[in-house]
Write a structure and sequence with these properties.
Length: 315
């Protein structure tokens, strides 16, 4: 397993993290807690040393609770990134951190992130709370998620931001225009979510196999009519490359992202040990520069089919 420094912090993250949204059991067709715990344990065995969750994942903060159960006696081998959302005022941020620590059964959160900007709360207020939590030793690194370059720059005025978590994959590359260059220039790590376009880039979905009712992917821009069909055509073009490297489509998509400028470590969602085993194998091969360019050109055609330039993946 390869490891990379998280911004200016002393943390080193494996180039693959395990995403725990699905472990919340809501919006993804359900999840089995035993499988979730087993997936985290298997990830640690494979050298993956961090998980990403959030207070909002699942009813009653279920994902954080599952992570807390899985990491008992394993915090020396695995770091936790989690996120606060909604009311991110000073007092609320302090309270939310304490609540997450209790659910995680932990003394420290390695990476604490603002999940989404909140126009009703000055970022200075939220950052003041996070900087204080950092000084108290309750969190180590501060991060933000779904921030644009201007919002990231504003937050950075009030404390050091070590990490940005944006949506980023072969078919969704808005961050490459302004945000990734800003992060490179300011030594801010990026840990992309949805690196396999929520399963689309694995080849799982087809014209005859569309996400069922209740599945959160039905609100994803990439799954909308006019874009979905172009994405499926692009996937067909990627299949020969996957065969060339003797890997799955999902592994090919993950490896492409790992090799992109400014990317620190993608977050690979998993609901069972087999899925994280597949993701961990992306460190076993490297895509040539020519094939990287070819894949980017395929991704460009999907980007051109998007209805607008909005960086928000959800509708």
């Amino acid at each position: 397993m390869e490891y990379r420094k998280l911004g200016q912090s002393d943390l080193e993250f494996s180039v693959i993290g395990i995403g725990c949204w699905v472990m919340g059991g809501q919006g993804w067709g359900g999840a089995d807690d035993k499988d979730s715990v087993a997936a985290i344990h298997r990830a640690i065995e494979l050298g993956i040393n961090w998980v990403d969750t959030a207070e909002a994942y699942g009813d009653d903060n279920h994902s954080e609770k599952v992570v807390g159960e899985a990491l008992q006696d394993r915090y020396d081998a695995c770091m936790v990134a989690t996120k606060l959302i909604g009311d991110i005022s000073y007092e609320s941020a302090k309270h939310k951190c304490e609540a997450s620590l209790q659910r995680l059964q932990a003394d420290v959160i390695h990476l604490y992130q603002i999940h989404w900007p909140n126009a009703d709360v000055p970022i200075e207020e939220t950052m003041r709370a996070l900087v204080e939590l950092q000084a108290e030793g309750k969190i180590i690194a501060i991060g933000v998620s779904n921030f644009d370059a201007a919002q990231l720059a504003e937050a950075s005025q009030y404390g050091r931001i070590d990490c940005l978590q944006p949506p980023h994959n072969l078919f969704w590359r808005h961050v490459e225009k302004e945000i990734i260059p800003y992060c490179i220039e300011n030594n801010i790590a990026t840990i992309p979510y949805s690196p396999m376009a929520q399963g689309l880039l694995t080849g799982k979905f087809t014209q005859d196999n569309y996400p069922p009712e209740g599945d959160i992917r039905r609100k994803n821009v990439l799954f909308q009519p006019g874009v979905y069909e172009v994405a499926l055509e692009a996937i067909e073009e990627l299949k020969p490359l996957a065969e060339k490297y003797e890997v799955t489509l999902g592994q090919l998509a993950l490896r492409w992202l790992i090799q992109r400028p400014g990317v620190t470590a993608p977050i690979a969602g998993a609901r069972n040990p087999g899925q994280i085993e597949q993701s961990a194998r992306v460190t076993d091969f490297e895509i040539s520069s020519g094939d990287m360019a070819a894949m980017s050109a395929i991704g460009d055609r999907v980007m051109a089919a998007l209805p607008d330039d909005s960086p928000v993946m959800w509708r």
